[in-house]
Amino acid sequence: MLESFNFLVILEYLPLFGQGMIATAWISAVSTFGALLVGIVSCMMRLSPVSLLRILAGAYIEFIRSTPLLAQLYFFYFGLPTLGIRLNEYQTGILALSLNSGAYIAEIIRAGVQSIPWGLIEAAMASGLGYFQRIRYIVLPQAIGVTIPPLLGQTIVLVKDSALLSLISVMELTRAGQLMNSERFMPAEGFFTTALCYLILYHLLKAFSTWWQKRLIFRPA
Amino acid sequence: MFGYYLSSLIRAFPFFLKGLWMTIEVSALSLMIGTVIGFVVGIARNARIPVLHSVLGIYIDFMRGTPFLVQVFIVFFIFPEWGLQLDAFSASILSLSIYAGAYISEIVSGGLDIIPGGQIEAASASGLNWFQRMVHVVMPQAMRPILPPLVGQYVLLIKDSSVVSVIGLTDVTRVGWLTVQRIPEGLMVFGLVGVLYFVICYPLIHLSNAFEKRLRLQEFKLG
Question: In 10 A of CB B20, how many CB atoms?
Fold first, then answer.
């Protein structure tokens, strides 16, 4: 099956894969950061007392969750230029990834926030804390602990989803495999190397997630 | 100009419906095959037979650790090298099924974990064989925690089926991609594609939520 597997070619393309891995890592990191911002804002909107904000955030979250990322990516890639907004492929990709993951993160944070007993919020109000002080000192410190594991899960999903960016010709890991396939006609070498690189990233993130969860359980009181 | 594009998009609408049908067809077929794979692998993995357990673990790990796009490329470009010629349709179904199967097997094996060992022992002591134990004792209870995430996984499957458009399957995403080459109104074209996906996925997400709510109510009543 793999008797014709050519490791020399992989060695030759290794710099390209290294480059792709770095690109995937930084694109994912920037998008995760963007998604966190989007997620926090849309979660605050979703839980706000103003019904217009609630409806807007709800519509955004439901629509993102019910449509595929690829359609969203094409929506921005082909759609933004018609509005006169010119972004390069990297910016478009990061925008789409952030808005996509942001909707999922908003739901994760909402679950975390709603796990806080209402009595604590009432006590904070009674102590005279304002809205942002309540969020900063009461809600976030408790919500972050329970939301970190699902957030890391979402980050793993985001890293894998970033592969779709290769379809709008962003130079990242999957693109490296595609290039190797089209330049040397070696799909096995190209795509298995790509898969291996993703597996490395996946296991790094998963190990971090496990470590964090253990820390959460065995934290000294 | 906008009116002209709008009218040509309306004229192209039958193609979108055709694409939507292709999406439904591919998703439904791979959903069924994936569920079968998932249940078989999940039950086999839960049995904890030494070698089989780790082999299936590698399969699940590979599927969960690599992007679906890369898996599609592997099936479509590498399998022919190994003598398995596939057209776009069967390559899509194959890759979607083995991908969904890995995730479903994790759901199934997690659901089986909640059955207390004492029940299995009691069932064996009553003379039920393995198959009878599964059908009459294990599955009726395990299905309750399995069902909500299973439906959620189906939603993911339908959404992920958009990725197979890159190997030339004319599903609704590819119809959008082909249309946008002639009608350069990306927002309109992919807005329509989004609405079509929304129509299928949104009810399913709510079905999953409803199952989950019912599960919690039942636990409340039992507990």
Answer: 18
From residue A19, give the alpha-carbon distance in Å to each of A94, A163, A197, B170: 18, 14, 11, 33
Task: Inspect the interface and report whether the beta carbons of B186 and A71 lie closer than 8 Å.
Answer: no
Residue in chain A closest to B167 (alpha carbons) equals A167
Instruction: Tell me what the pLDDT averaged over chain B comes to.
Output: 89
Q: How confident is the model at residue A219 (pLDDT cuts 50, 70, 90)?
A: low
Task: Give alpha helix (H) positions in chain A.
Answer: 7-46, 51-65, 69-79, 89-114, 118-126, 131-134, 140-161, 173-184, 187-217
Nearest to A161 by CA among A101, A79, A76: A101
Residue B212's alpha-carbon distances to A146, A151, B55, B104, B112, in angstroms, are 20, 21, 32, 17, 17
Cα A183 to Cα A13, A187, B36: the distances in Å are 11, 10, 39
Rounded to whole angstroms, the Cα distance separating B121 from B142 reads 16
Name the pTM for this structure: 0.89
> Would you state the structure tokens that stand for residue B64, as one six-digit string?
């969960």
For residue A197, the model assigns a pLDDT of: 92
Quick one: pLDDT band at residue A221, thresholds 50, 70, 90?
very low
Angle at A145 between CA A142 and CA A147, to 5 degrees: 105
Single-letter residue type at B139: M
* Closest C-alpha to A35, from A79, A93, A122: A93
Rg of chain A taking only CA atoms, in angstroms: 21
Write b or e for each residue in A61-89: b if 16 or more Cβ atoms lie within 10 A of its Cβ, otherwise e. bbbbbbbbbbbbbbbbbbbbebeeeeeee
- Taking an 8 Å cut-off on Cβ atoms, the answer to whether A163 and B77 are in contact is no
Contact between chains at B74 and A79 (C-beta distance less than 8 A): no
Q: Which residues of A touch B205 (CB under 8 A)?
A: 62, 65-66
Query: What's the ipTM?
Result: 0.88
